[in-house]
Amino acid sequence: MDSTIGIRARHFTLLFVLAANIVSGCGEAGMFSTGELRAMSSSNMGADVDEARVTVTRVSPRCDAAAATACPEAAAPALEIHFEGHSVILDFSNVDEAGRFDMAEFDGFEIEFSGTAEDGPLYFVTVDADQTSIDVDDETLDYQRNYLDINLAGLDYDSETFIKIDLLLGPLNLFARSGS
Q1: Helix (H, G, I), strand (E, B) or coil at 21
Q2: 122 burial class (0-12, 13-18, 19+ CB within 10 angstroms)?
Q3: Residues 168-175: what's their mean pLDDT?
Q4: Within a 10 A sphere around the Cβ of 99, how many other Cβ atoms?
Q5: Is the pTM of this model over 0.85?
Q6: Span 33-61, pLDDT tens digits
Q7: Burial state string for 7-46 with b = 16 or more CB within 10 A and e = fewer than 16
Q8: Burial annotation 77-96 (CB, 10 A radius, 16+ → b, else e)
């Protein structure tokens, strides 16, 4: 069998199982192994993040939960959060002094993905260990259909800190071709 046909057949099978899972009401990609989802998120099967449809909120014990405005900039290190393709990047290169996120139940960022009804959900997230410069793992992340929470509580950081999180965001591209 031609390897391209084999790859497409595999993608079709994965998509069929995923579609059946969603139609059945599960809404999550629970029928896939973590390895399969990790491979799908590192390929170009998922959609790129549309920054216009993303809201990033700082959540910290240093912020007043009753405040009507977002967490003040002073409560967060001078990091940049941006999106490249299907990844979330936390770049700490602008941090002047090393620091630590508060030891709390949650100290980090909430990212909400919004859009239209035909937009697909967030199926899977994983820390890209090859690109991430500190010891964070998938336990740091919590996600559902339209949001991702990144809990950095107790994390030490400096200007060398870099975190890359890969997303598998729908709609999925069934016939994704590597290298295109």
Answers
A1: helix
A2: buried
A3: 70
A4: 14
A5: no
A6: 555 555 555 556 677 788 888 888 888 88
A7: eeeebeebbeebeebbeeeeebbeebeeeebbebbbbebb
A8: bebebebeebbbbbebeebe
